[in-house]
Design a protein that fits this description.
The chain has 13 helices and no strands. The protein has 278 residues and is mostly helical. The chain has one domain. Helix 3 packs antiparallel against helix 4.
Length: 278
């Protein structure tokens, strides 16, 4: 019975993570406890993999009917709709708040403002445009099929959602605690939670390798791409940590979203680099 209760609890944590990061409705039996917001962090990479899988399937399906550019936009539209622009909103707010040279207090005020400014608008346009450009390049005739582009989408969505988990663990909360959007989430995550999240990310990588191997395709390029992107995304995460600490003294919910967006596009860029390097 204890084992079944533990499995049921983990299922609730997974579905809580799905509810937190996406607009997918979850069953009523899941319920809700505030402390689950801490525990559900371990499943962020899994939810990222699911989001990436939706985007990858949409990309492959659309590419069968339309040119790469159209397929990429439709794929991105699916993932943006699925997440409710959750991370994109954090990126835009972070650009508005930290794009200028305002004080920490003023930056936090800007983040609370629901309106989007010039920095946020330009940052969002450039971020989405860069992602689209990379994905279009990945789906050009340089690739014989859609498999590599699909793998890149799934992996980068997965690994980039581990970054906020690490930042929460390594950094203090830099915002206004009294007005935190999700107080239990914003305060802390345990070492166990970080380790589990990291192992789940590696499990997704192993699943991608297994799927490729079972299809009879070579796996050496996948291993190289995954390792390269991990290094690049780690550097991006370190940059985010330095940036947020210098300007805010820690992280906020919006900056966590920004860190996901930054590392996702860095991962995609590193994946593309192997294709276009002479």
């Amino acid at each position: 019975m204890n084992v079944m209760n533990a499995i049921l609890h983990e299922a609730r944590l997974l579905l809580t993570a799905v509810q937190f990061l996406t607009r997918v409705p979850i069953p009523r039996w899941v319920g809700y406890q505030p402390e689950w917001l801490q525990g559900c962090l371990r499943y962020f990479p899994v939810v990222g993999a699911l989001i990436g899988l939706v985007g990858a399937l949409a990309l492959a399906l659309a590419a069968a009917w339309w040119p790469p550019a159209v397929a990429v936009v439709l794929s991105m539209a699916c993932t943006v709709w699925l997440t409710g622009c959750f991370h994109e909103d954090g990126w835009a707010d972070t650009c508005d708040a930290l794009g200028g040279t305002v004080s920490r207090e003023r930056a936090l005020e800007i983040m609370k403002d629901s309106r989007i400014g010039t920095y946020g608008s330009v940052g969002l346009i450039l971020m989405l445009g860069l992602k689209a450009a990379v994905l279009v390049s990945l789906t050009t005739p340089l690739w014989p099929d859609m498999v590599s582009a699909m793998m890149a989408l799934i992996w980068c969505h997965t690994a980039s959602r581990l970054v906020p988990v690490w930042l929460i663990r390594l950094m203090p909360y830099g915002g206004d605690v009294a007005h935190a959007k999700a107080k239990p989430l914003a305060m802390q995550v345990t070492n166990t939670g970080v380790i589990i999240a990291t192992l789940l990310m590696l499990l997704v990588a192993a699943a991608l390798w297994g799927a490729l191997a079972c299809s009879g395709r070579p796996t050496a390029a996948l291993v190289s791409d995954v390792l390269r992107s991990l290094v690049v995304m780690a550097v991006g995460a370190a940059f985010c940590a330095h940036w947020f600490m210098r300007r805010l003294g820690g992280f906020t919910g919006d900056t966590l979203g920004a860190s996901q967006q930054i590392t996702e596009v860095l991962g995609l860029l590193s994946w593309l680099m192997a294709t276009h390097t002479p």
